[in-house]
Structures are given as C-alpha cells and as structure tokens.
Amino acid sequence: MNNLKWWQKTAVYQIYPKSFLDTTGSGTGDIAGITSKLDYLQKLGIGAIWLTPIYKSPMVDNGYDIADYTSIDPSYGTMKDMENLIDEAKKHNIKIVMDLVYNHSSDQHEWFKESRKSRNNPKSDWYIWRDAKADGSAPTNWRAIFGGSAWTWCEERQQYYLHTFAPQQPDLNWENPDVRHALYESANFWLKKGVGGFRIDAITYIKKPKEFVDGDPDSKDGTVAVHTMTANTPGILDFLHEFKREVFDKGDIFTVGEANGVSADELKNWVGVNGVFDMLFEFSHLVLPFTNGEIWCYPREWKLTELKKALSDSQKATKDNGWYPIFFENHDQPRCVNHFMPKGADMIKAAKAMATILLTLRGTPFIYQGQELGFANVAWDSINKYNDISSHGQYELALKEGFTPEQAMKFIHFFSRDNARTPMQWTSGINAGFTTGQSWLPLHNDFDKCNAEIEDNDKNSVLNYFRKLNNFRKQNETLLNGDYKELLKDDESVYAFSRSTENSKIYVLVNFTLNKVEFSAEFLNQSNLIFGNYESNDKGILRPLEAVVYEEASK
Ligand code: GLC
To answer: What is the pTM of this model?
Structure first.
C-alpha cells in the first residue's frame, strides 16, 4: 500500500459547478456552493475534486469555451472564492483538480479576437486558418463533433478557421511555440495556487495532420467526422512530453487525459514510466451503444461480454504500466443506471450494483456528482428544453439522416449530456435545495424521493452504500492494489472478478439482468459476504441486479 501515490489510494469526485449548488439565487451553481459542501464530500470519503471549467466563458459549451485561462467566470464567484475553496478543501484532506481545455479557446478569447483581424497580426497564426476551396467552400468535408462543418468562414480575414467542436470554440495552433508556452504558463498559474492535478480535455485533437484533405463521407450529407481525420495524429506525443516537462513534472499532482482515440496497444506511450499522463480516460466501455463514431442515431444492442471485455482489457493494460481511472459517468455521458442496466431495472439496486464495480476494480474511481445518490436520466418532451449544444447538433443530424422528430427525441433522451447536468438534489424542498431562484436547467422530477437529505438518513440508501464501500476500499490493500482476474468470462448475465494479493482475496459478482441466475459457486466456499445490494446472499444464486462482494477468510 505504501508504494501507492496519494491519488491511487482515493476516489475523485467530479463536480459540474453550474449544477452543484447556488448560494446567490442566480439559478446557477457557484464556487461558494462547493465550499459549503466539503463536509458532505469528506464523509463520502473522496480525496480530490475534479472541477469542470470555472474560467471566464461565454458558456456556449458551459465553460468548455474559455475566454481567459486565469480568471474565474463572475457567475461562479471570484478568485478569492477559488482560493478559499482550495484552502478549505485542504483542511478536509481534499485536493482540487482543474480542467485544462487547451485544444481550443472561446472565440471571445483576446487571442482569437486578435487573430481573426488580419492575416499578419501578432496572433495571426495562433489558430488554424485556411483558404477556401476554389469554389468558395470549406477547405475540407470534416464534420465538427457538435455537428455541422468543422470550418467557419471569417469575413475579416477572408479565410476559414477550424473548430473540432462548436464554431465558438476555434482550435488553437499547437505548432506555434508561443501558443504552447502561453498555455503552459496558465497551467503553472494554477499549480502555484496549490491545485492537486489536472484533467486535460480533448487532448487527442491538438496535433493536426500535415495535409488537410477530404475524407470518405460517413454521413448522408457528405461529411466525415473530424475525429476520424485528426485524432491522435503522429507527432502529438512530442507536444505532450514538452507539456509534461513544463508543467506536470513541477508538482505532486496527478494528471488524467481525456483520450478518445487512443487504443490499448498505444497506451504505454501515453501513461506510465514512458508516458505523459498518470491516467487516461478511454471510452471503450462507454461507446458500446454506438455503431458510427460520434453519431447518436444508430444505436446498437450490446452484450455483457463486450462490456466485460472492455473493462478487463483496461485492467490488463494498466496492470504494470500506468493506472486506470475507473468511471461510468461524467458530464458528457448518460447516467450509468440507464447506460448499462436493463430497462425496467430497480434504480436503487442498479445504482448500488454499478457502485460495486466502480469501487472494487483496480484504479482510481471517479464518482460523478449525483451518481452517489443514484441519479437517472431525464426525458423532456421537446428539444427546446435541452441546453446541451451537442444534443441540438445530434437532433439536427438525426433529422438529416431521415428520422422523424419523435425518433430523434428518443436518441436525445438516451444520450443527451443534459442527463448528467440536471441540478444536484440536496433536499425535498423548493428546487431540491439547489437554488432559490430559477434553475438554469429543469430538475429531475424524482427529487422528492432521491436527494441527499433523505439518503443521509436512510441506512439502506445509495449514498450510504457509496460511503461504506468507498471508505472500506481506502483502507483495503486488496481492493487498492490486488491483482484483477475475470471469472465466469463467457457468462452473458454476470460480471465476476477477483482481486487478490499473496494472502488475501476478494470476489465481486454482479447480475446485470432482471432474472435470477445460478452458477457453480465452489470458489466462494471459504468466503464471507462483506457488501451487497440485498440484505443477504445465497452462494451460487444472484437475484435481479444483485451485486455481492465476498472476502476470503484469511489463511
Ligand atoms: C470534452 C468535454 C466536453 C466538451 C468538449 C469540448 O469532451 O468533456 O464536455 O464539450 O471536450 O471542450
């Protein structure tokens, strides 16, 4: 246990500040709201908070469009509030982890305002500018991740600029050393303020190919996902090693990169001794419902063995090199009870079952706000109720692909990022105690049953299950560092694995179906039940959605 670093021995809690707690009545959450909930977070047993962006932003993508990397958006408070949060969190043994969004800035950043003015100003090549094709159309047929062309025309410069995401999020030109050093400087600004780490956004897109060419269309409108054309372009690691030397190596921090597009066999170049980051968020277990890259309107059924394989592959890939960030939710994903569990599931059982896996795999668990209370997806009746920019893009795309508005809404209900962004539910009172004003996004209508106040007082709640298992895990060498081995590999109903050290063993079994399943359980003969989402368990039988953790009696 002693050879593990601090961030390998604790869970991280992700906060989406806009939806966490509003202390001013503005309708959006703020930094002071987070500070006021540190006792709650400490009781949950977490050691770090990953804050999604709180920097100055026009909020087209809720803060992932940054207009100034070293100032706080006034809707969240002031730099004093931020410093206070860092200090108070420290007193609770919690570190603050910042989100670095360096593939792109906001189009309202001073750098872009300057860059767009002309082709020869001092910042003219801080972004990615190209001439139109001979017919005036965009330089390539690339489609932005949020839909539409990845190129937007700029009248002033008479050129197009590239944006992997929304037009208001122009991509920075990492080929320019001045850009890179300006970004490093702003990250070091936060290191000096005492933050405990960084989550690095959309990092696989920072390097662009030498030649910009059209790709084979993957959509009826003749476009191809920009991801296919630019993700993980060779040469990217040179930038990242420089980033590491200039920033990451300077503190006792952890880094986790968001790395859509890095495959398991490339992982060794990204994490661990020869890599750049401590951990990498990869998405192999989250993309199972997709058939076609980033497109939501062609979902597929997936099998449990596929999910098990994805998780086991990641465990294997990080066994001796790097470290795995375990996550089933974040601010971009549906709620895990809907994502992974069958329709009609008992949501409390389902939430505890997913928590059981999250907190017993090998790695650092990331708990996303509300997950510890068992939050589920919403399903609003009109696209106009959705705030998420990508939901709007995907809705338009589905219509273009020939789906009806009703069908398109089904995809939105399942995949919308707003599923994860509905406000936190603190109490059964007005607006669930989130705000005294008008909430920026509707609340989930289950808040009178599912909230922190009620769950705090219910020993069988999802919240208390999280607390118990997470605090147990922190002290348990087997769960922290024991070897992982998958069991019952071909079973399409049960995910089972063991964690073991030389003289200890823990078994985890989760039934992903609504049926009772039976299996031969000799391997559990010497073991006792230590956690479960039912009161007791008969060895060899798992009831619907039953999750159990067994510990072998010491030898
Ligand atoms: C990442 C973020 C997502 C954001 C995008 C653009 O994928 O997680 O929320 O919209 O990058 O910055």
So the answer is: 0.97
